[in-house]
Design a protein that fits this description.
The chain has 367 residues and is an alpha+beta fold. It folds into three domains: 7-201, Jelly Rolls (Sandwich); 206-262, no CATH class; 269-363, no CATH class. It contains ten helices and 17 strands. The strands form four sheets. Strands 1, 2, 3, 4, 5, 6, 9, 10 and 11 form a nine-stranded antiparallel sheet that branches. Strands 16-12-17 form a three-stranded antiparallel sheet. Strand 14 and strand 15 form a beta hairpin. The longest helix is centred in the C-terminal third of the chain and has 18 residues, at 244-261. The two termini are 24 Å apart.
Length: 367
């Protein structure tokens, strides 16, 4: 994806800070998906899809799967489907066009089709997103930064905000992209029939990170280990008092335990976890690899962490320690590149075995 500013400038001045309009980010881009194909996917029982429309001034929402007659509403309507990259290989290929942001931060590609004048209302998101126009035109109105104190309108399961005066307005043509950071109010309205690809990133909740860190440390912490008072014992505190020195001593003990025992494997597990493992198995059944070359499946979340003599490779919330010599292959595959099965098996057999076991590889002949 061609940004309208240098990558370094984007990361330092725009990423998670302010929007950026990128005209012809993908020159000559043509949607790899038709509205009819999107509607067909939305009829699948396992698909995560919904329709949004406004009737008599009230916002309405309906979740899929849909029957064919659902797409014949008299009011302007929008069809949205999450995780289309998990269903469609050409949509999944769009991942490779993203700027050099850690791939484990990427979530999925949502595709929305809207009839003339339709949209999902004014709102803000808590994640980063690149809005790539695939077909027709869509007008995007950008408003102020929002947070938990921003008034919100809950209508039929939709989290909207009151209409706002736009600070900036952009009309996206096919191939144009608009980066919107978390918290920025935005409102998209279709000009004629329109299809947009939303390439979204996710960030784990701090509460989840803290819980997993503590859980990881507790599994390694000796249960008989007690808090030592050290020099605080004879300080002569008033009866029953917990002093600031006591608090500092307890904090230091906890920090020492974390620093000594925390290996941060929990972070790789959290950022690669899939949202619903049970559904994942239904959507992406195990397939046999018959082609000579393989690459990572678009459905797998893969990250890695280098250590002194090995690398921890994380796949869909689990990890395995792999010999350090496999690092070049991990990087190669995480870049979305192909590798021959023979070379991968000979140079990094442990990595190949683990990825195959986790159903994280697909071959060149896979659909």
């Amino acid at each position: 994806m061609r940004l309208s500013v240098p990558t370094g400038q984007f990361l330092s001045e725009y990423w998670q800070q302010k929007p950026l309009f990128c005209p012809q980010a993908l020159p000559g881009f043509k949607s790899p998906l038709t509205p009819d194909e999107l509607a067909g996917l939305a009829m699948e029982p396992s698909a995560e899809s919904r329709m949004v429309w406004q009737h008599a001034g009230s916002w309405q929402q309906q979740c899929g799967p849909f029957a064919e007659d659902a797409f014949h509403k008299p009011d302007p309507w929008t069809l949205l489907m999450h995780g289309v990259d998990h269903w469609h290989s050409e949509v999944a290929a769009l991942r490779q066009s993203l700027p050099p942001i850690p791939s484990w931060r990427f979530d999925d590609i949502m595709v929305s089709y809207a009839t003339d004048g339709a949209g999902v209302g004014p709102h803000f998101d808590r994640y980063d997103v690149f809005l790539l126009q695939g077909q027709g035109q869509r007008e995007w109105r950008l408003g102020p930064a929002c947070d938990d104190s921003t008034p919100q309108l809950q209508e039929n399961g939709l989290s909207l905000i009151p209409p706002f005066k736009a600070k900036e307005t952009f009309v996206l043509e096919p191939g144009d992209a608009l980066y919107v950071p978390p918290g920025i109010a935005h409102w998209g309205i279709a000009r004629g029939e329109s299809m947009t690809f939303s390439l979204g990133y996710r960030a784990p909740r701090i509460a989840d990170l803290l819980a997993r860190q503590i859980d990881g440390v507790l599994t390694k912490l000796a249960p008989q280990l007690l808090l030592e008072d050290g020099f605080l014992a004879p300080t002569g505190a008033r009866a029953g008092e917990i002093t600031s020195d006591h608090i500092a001593n307890a904090r230091a003990a906890l920090q020492s335990a974390i620093e000594a025992l925390d290996d941060f494997t929990w972070l790789g597990e959290v950022v690669t976890e899939v949202a619903a493992p049970g559904d994942q198995d239904d959507l992406y059944p195990t397939t046999s690899i018959v082609g000579e070359s393989v690459r990572l499946t678009p459905t797998s979340r893969v990250a890695w962490m280098e250590r002194a003599d090995a690398i921890d490779v994380f796949v869909d919330g689990e990890y395995r320690s792999i010999p350090l010599k496999a690092i070049r292959w991990v990087i190669h595959l995480c870049e979305g590149q192909w590798a021959t099965q023979q070379a991968l098996r000979e140079d990094a057999p442990e990595l190949y075995e683990y990825l195959e076991e986790r159903n994280a590889l697909t071959d060149e002949d896979a659909s």
